[in-house]
Write a structure and sequence with these properties.
The structure holds two protein chains of two kinds.
Chain A lengths: L5 H11 L16 E6 L4 E6 L3 E8 L2 E9 L9 H6 L11 E5 L5 H9 L4 E6 L2 H10 L8 E5 L2 H7 L4 E6 L14 H9 L1 E11 L4 H13 L2 E7 L2 E7 L6 H15 L5 H5 L3 E3 L14 H5 L12 E2 L3
Parallel strand pairs in A: 5-6, 5-8, 6-7, 8-9
Antiparallel strand pairs in A: 1-2, 2-3, 3-4, 9-11, 10-11, 10-12, 12-13
Helix pairs in contact in A: 6-7
Chain B lengths: L1 H35 L3 H29 L2 H32 L4 H20 L1 H9 L6 H27 L5 H21 L1 H5 L4
Helix pairs in contact in B: 1-2, 1-3, 1-4, 1-5, 1-6, 1-7, 2-4, 2-5, 3-4, 3-7, 5-6
Classes of the chains: A alpha/beta, B mainly alpha.
């Protein structure tokens, strides 16, 4: 009974079968490569030119963009869905503490730190090298108000009892979200770490069956789920209690917008809200979460709208 | 004729136990990820624990079979392994939750968790291989081929257990249910060894 070699191969093959997620096809190999780093968890490639830098995770000769920044305009959120991730700050009654699982280049948390001068933000990132490279290439700076912790997101939330007004989840490893960050038990844990009125915001990629399962699972833990089209990726906002009336959300978004003068207008984004009302996917649990298989089944990326309705 | 059927029985069990052993290693990852994360460190802990279990099982099984020549003893060990596997879904979540808070999710925590999950049942399961070799060994002149054959068949079981579990079973069934199936298979193998005690002793006594 002796079998050592194939389990790594098994993992590798699983990953390789699947097509690109939220990235455009493979880019011209190696042009503008600034740094390549093989970390404990990822093969990280930093690409750049005179005015831009991007962090990608390489897998199976494809590069999955995790983050990008324009050097001449570092405060801008160049990846469209990350602007919609900030929509989470429109919902809660207060904005004292925000946590993000999955740092990438740290653009979203840097933007929120700069925009919300009274808010403390914690980024939970598994891969220490990602944090190092964010600091080196993406002007990411830790301050008293913007801290990082190196940990698996779920393990951190389990160990740490602190609660948050907004929890942002953007934990992709190349094309995959690890299964334990997509289950009902995980979202139930997230819910216990939210302050009253707090929201969870998750980036979900809509082109595979996994989208249906992920949204249904989120909905199983949070009675209300709103979806925003982030230009390719979908941003889901989940919260406890009944669905906010649209007028109420617009009023809250307007209040936060007027107070902080955010670069990406919350009022405008709130106007694009869709209510997630028809979950059709299988609810994932710690016991049963075949994320690799579901990811392999393609889905029309416009189909997600059929599961939603206009807010009232 | 008698020795052929004994060979079939023991090689069949070697294959089935090899399947369960690696199948359960793959399931081990499903139990560890939620508490300790899903990185290379989790896999290293699982693989190292399985290899330690194989080593201990081979040593223990070899020592016991030379001393006792008892298929029944091997059957008892396999049954204990199966009962342990069967019990895992009952205690794993509270235990790992508690460990995460008391030991943490560093190297010590992950290795300890993998050890608690896998070491005892997989050690007992891997005592089977030396038992099978010794019970089938009637002449030293075929010893090399016999050892090669038993390990070869067992390893085919390992390969199938790894691939079928990952690509067919985990996408189709819950990991708690699969754990119980592997446990039931291991207990059945233990009962077969116990029940066939006299039959398996036959030719060598």
């Amino acid at each position: 009974m002796d079998m050592r070699m194939s389990r790594r191969a098994v993992l590798g093959t699983g990953a390789g079968l699947v097509l690109a997620p939220f990235v455009p096809a493979a880019r011209a190999a190696e042009t503008g490569l600034l740094e390549k780093r093989e970390s404990l968890y990822n093969n990280i490639f930093i690409f750049g030119d005179a005015d831009s830098v991007s962090m990608t995770f390489g897998q199976n000769k494809r590069y999955y963009t995790e983050s990008s920044m324009k050097l001449s305009n570092p405060g801008a959120l160049t990846v469209e869905y990350t602007r919609y991730m900030t929509m989470g700050v429109a919902y809660p009654p207060k904005l004292e503490r925000i946590a993000e699982i999955g740092l990438g280049g740290g653009r979203t948390v840097s933007y929120l730190t700069a925009s919300l001068p009274d808010t403390g933000i914690l980024a939970i990132e598994l891969d220490k090298d990602v944090v190092d490279l964010a600091k080196k290439y993406f002007k990411f700076k830790e301050t008293a108000r913007l801290r990082t912790v190196i940990s698996d997101g779920r393990a951190f939330l389990l160990k740490d009892n602190e609660t948050w007004d907004v929890i942002l989840i953007d934990a992709y490893r190349g094309p995959f979200v690890p299964f334990h960050l997509l289950t009902k038990e995980f979202y139930a844990l997230v819910k216990t770490r939210l302050n009253p009125g707090g929201v969870v915001v998750q980036n979900i990629e809509p082109t595979t069956m996994l989208f249906d399962a992920a949204t249904a699972t989120l909905k199983s833990a949070f009675p209300s789920v709103d979806l925003y089209d982030g230009g390719g990726n979908i941003v889901a906002v989940g919260y406890d209690g009944p669905q906010l009336p649209q007028a109420e959300l617009l009023a809250r978004a307007g209040k936060v917008q007027d107070r902080y003068k955010l670069r990406y207008d919350l009022r405008q984004m709130a106007g694009e809200r869709r209510i997630f009302s028809r979950p059709i996917g299988k609810i994932l649990t710690d016991d049963f979460a075949p994320v690799e298989t579901m990811r392999a089944i393609a889905k029309n990326n416009e189909k997600w709208k059929e599961q939603t309705e206009a807010p009232r | 004729m008698h020795s052929y059927s004994r060979g079939f029985l023991l090689l069949g069990l070697a294959c089935v136990l090899g399947f369960s052993l690696m199948g359960f290693e793959m399931l081990g990852s499903r139990y560890l990820y939620p508490y300790f994360g899903g990185g290379i460190n989790t896999w290293a802990s699982l693989i190292a624990t399985v290899l330690v279990a194989l080593m201990l099982g081979y040593l223990l099984g070899g020592a016991l079979v030379d001393r006792t020549m008892s298929p029944r003893l091997c059957g008892v060990l396999l049954t204990i392994a199966g009962v342990y596997l069967f019990s895992i879904p009952l205690w794993v979540d509270p235990l790992f939750g508690w460990m995460l808070n008391s030991v943490g999710d560093g190297m010590a925590g992950i290795i300890l968790a993998a050890t608690i999950l896998l070491l005892l049942p997989l050690t007992l399961m891997s005592t089977f291989t030396p038992f099978a070799v010794r019970l089938l060994l009637t002449s030293v002149t075929v010893g090399g081929r016999l050892v090669g054959f038993v390990y070869g068949v067992s390893t085919i079981g390992n390969v199938l257990g790894t691939l079928v579990t990952t690509f067919v079973l985990v996408p189709s069934f819950g990991s708690r249910a699969l754990t119980m199936v592997f446990a039931a298979v291991t207990i059945a193998a233990g009962i077969a060894m116990t029940g066939a005690d006299r039959f398996l002793r036959g030719a060598t006594s």
